[in-house]
Amino acid sequence: MRAAAGPSSVAVAILGAGLVAYLTLHLAEPRLAITWSYAHLSRRAGLRELALALVVVLPLAASLLLRSPRLRAPARSWSPAFALPAMAALGLALLWVTTRLPVAQLGGDRGFYLLAVNDGRPISRWSLTCWGVHALIARFVAVPAPATDMGPVLVAAQTVNLVAGVVTLAALAGAARVVSASLGEAIVTTLLVWSTFGVLQISAGYLDVYPIVAALLALYLWTGVRTFAGEVHPAFPLVLAAVGPFFYEGLLLTWPSALLLGAVVARTTDGGPRVRTALAIAVVAAGLATVPVYRVPFAWWRFVADVAQQDGAVAFGYSPTSSLIPWPYLATVTHAREVLHTLLLVDGVGVLSVLVLGPSLVREVARDAGLAFVASIVLPFLVFVVVMDPVFGAFADWDLFSYGACATSLLGAALLVRFGRGSTLAAALVGLALAANVVHLLARFHALEVDAVRHLVESPRHVPG
Q: Chain-centre distance of CA 431, in angstroms?
C-alpha cells in the first residue's frame, strides 16, 4: 500500500493544536460569549472521566487498526447476507437511542413538518419529501388526522425517519469502504463518520425533513465514489443529483459534483456513451419528479416559480425577500462567530481536517477522483453555511446545515486516514480526532435542551432590527 504524500510539519502542528483546543473546550467548558457548540460535558457525573479515558484509549486503538498487518487487505463490499442483518442492527440501535433519549428540537419546524406530511400541503422547497411521506402515512394511517390526534402520524413519520437514518449510516459506511485502501482504514473512516454529531444526531430520532435529505446525500456519496471505482453505472449518482432538489432544494449543492463526475467518467474508456445514457436517464427522472405534485412531467418552470415565491415570501430573517444573509451582515463578527460555532457543533473535526490537511494533500486528492468528487460537494456546502440565514438563530437552526456533515465527515476522515499512513504518531493523531468526535457526542448528543435558554440568548433569532 503506497503511503500518501505527507502534509507539512506546519499542517501537522495546526491539526494537533486544533484537536487539543477542541478537546480543551469540552473538558474545561469555559464560559465564553457562545458556548452552545461544546457544552455540556458536565451535565452528568462520570462523562468527563470517560472523555479523558477515551483521549488515552482511542489514539492507541486507531494506531492498531491503521497499522495492523491483519487489516491491510482491502475491505470487501457488504454482501446481502451481511448487509441486511447489519442494517437491522443499526435500526434497532437507533430505535433504542430514540426511545431512551428523546430529541430536543428547539424551533417550530417539528410541528410544522408533522402538519405538512399529515395533510400533504405543497411545501415547494421539499415537495417530493412532503408528498412521499404523506403517501406513506396515508397507506397506514387515516389521513388527514385531526390536529388534536397526531399520535399515529407522529409514529409513522418517526418510522420513516428511522429508516432514513439507517440508510444514511449504511451508505456512509459503504462510501468509507470505497475511499479506503484497507479494512483497517475502512473501519476507522466509518467510525469517524458515524461519530460526527451532524450525522448521528440527525439520524437518531430527529423529526424533520433533514434525515431524509441526509439519506439522499449519503446515497449520492456512496454511488458517486463507487462510480469512480468502476462498481456502478454513473446513472445512479446522476439520477440522485437530478431528483434531489425536488426532495429538498438544498440538494442543488450536489450539482457541481455531478458535473465533475460526468466530465471525469466521459474521459475514460467507453465513458462517453455511459455518461450520455446516464444523463438521458437523469433528465427523464427529473421530468417525472414533477408528476406527483403538478400532475404533468417536466413542469420545472412551475416548480422553480413556486420555490422562488415561497422563498420570496419569507416574513422573518434578516432579509425580507430572501433566505440568504444580507451582504452587510456577512462581514460582521457576530456572523463569523455564528458560522464558526455552527461548524464546531455539526462537524468540527471533519471541517478542521479538511481545512488543514486538504491544502497539504491537494495532489493526493487530485489523483483520487473519488476524493475530488467528495471535495466538490464540501466546498459548496461551506459556502452555503456562510450565506444561508438560520432565521431561528444559529443554535436553534443548526439542523439547517446538518446533512452537509455527511460530506465533510467523509472527506475529513479520508484525509485523516491518508495522513495516518505516515507513521505511528500520525495514526495516533487520527485516533485523537476520533476521540474528539466521541467526546463531542458525550457533550452534545441528545443534549441540546441542556441550558437551552442561555444558549438561545447567546444566539438569538434573526429578527430585522
A: 21
Query: Measured over all CA atoms, what is the biggest interatomic distance in the chain, rounded to whole angstroms?
Result: 63
Helix spans in 388-423 (H): 405-420
One-letter amino acid at 462 equals H
- Cα separation, 322 vs 311, in Å, equals 6
Q: Report the DSSP beta bridge partners of residue 388.
A: 324
The answer to whether residues 377 and 221 touch, using CB atoms and an 8 Å cutoff, is yes
Cell triple for 59? 489514539
Consecutive H or E run containing 273: helix 271-288
373-391 pLDDT tens trace? 999 999 999 999 999 999 8
Phi, psi at 388, each rounded to 5°: -80, 140
What is this structure's pTM? 0.95
Lowest mean pLDDT among 118-132, 277-291, 368-382: 118-132
Q: Are 320 and 334 in contact (CB under 8 A)?
A: no
**CA-based torsion, 356, 360, 362, 367: positive or negative:** negative
Neighbours of 64 (CB within 10 A): 15
